[in-house]
Amino acid sequence: MLSYPVKLELDTNNTYLVTFPDIPEAVSVGDDEGEALLNALDALESAIEIYFDDKREVPPPSKPKKGQPVVTLPALVVSKVLLANEMIRQGVRKSELARRLDVHMPQVDRLLDPRHSSRLDAIEAAFNKLGKRLEVSIS
After folding, report:
1. CA nearest neighbour of 31 among 9, 14, 43
2. pLDDT, averaged across the chain
3. What is the rounded CA–CA span in Å between residue 68 and residue 48?
4. Which value, to the nearest 10 degrees, does the dihedral of the CA atoms of residues 107, 138, 63, 21 take?
5. Helix or strand run (H / E) with residue 79
6. What is the Cα–Cα distance from 37 to 90, expressed in whole angstroms?
7. pLDDT reading at 54 higher than 90
8. What pLDDT, on the 0 to 100 scale, is given for residue 14?
9. Coiled-coil ranges per the record (predicted)?
10. Which of 10, 11, 46, 51 is packed most tightly, with the most Cβ within 10 A?
């Protein structure tokens, strides 16, 4: 699970501004705290796309302070972040992963698209080709 702490503040327009200390590219607003936090997930996913496009590791979330709100990424997006980070660490490009998986490039592009509903078995296969195993748990 990746839960990113957020800074939530009322701005001069009486809207709530949400920023992420760990992901400065993610910024969102809302008319109230609930809307701002809901919009923050979309902003976080958009920022993750930027990291993927720039081939930069997505930083892990820092520990939230007591009472600090967090935005939690959906499990499928978490698996894609972990996959992209592992590819970067190993120096494996998308074309190389496509070759290892014996698939076309658009399929790998979809695997690394946080907004695409990829199949979990496809992500699991990608991890296997990187010498890793995807584990799922419930807490």
Report:
1. 14
2. 94
3. 21
4. 30
5. helix 75-90
6. 34
7. yes
8. 87
9. none
10. 51
pLDDT attached to residue 136? 84
* In the predicted structure, residue 137 carries a pLDDT above the cut 90: no
CA distance 90 to 59: 16
Q: CA nearest 127: which of 75, 74, 86? A: 86
**Residue 123 banded pLDDT, cuts 50, 70, 90:** very high
What is the dihedral angle through the alpha carbons of 70, 73, 75, 81, rounded to the nearest 10 degrees? Answer: -120
**DSSP label at residue 13:** T
pLDDT of residue 12: 81
Round to whole Å and give the CA distance between 69 and 96.
39
User: How long, in residues, is the chain?
Assistant: 139
CA distance 127 to 139: 22
C-alpha span between 74 and 103 (Å, rounded): 25
Rounded Cα distance between 80 and 110, Å, is 10
DSSP state of 66: T
Q: How confident is the model at residue 91 (pLDDT cuts 50, 70, 90)?
A: very high
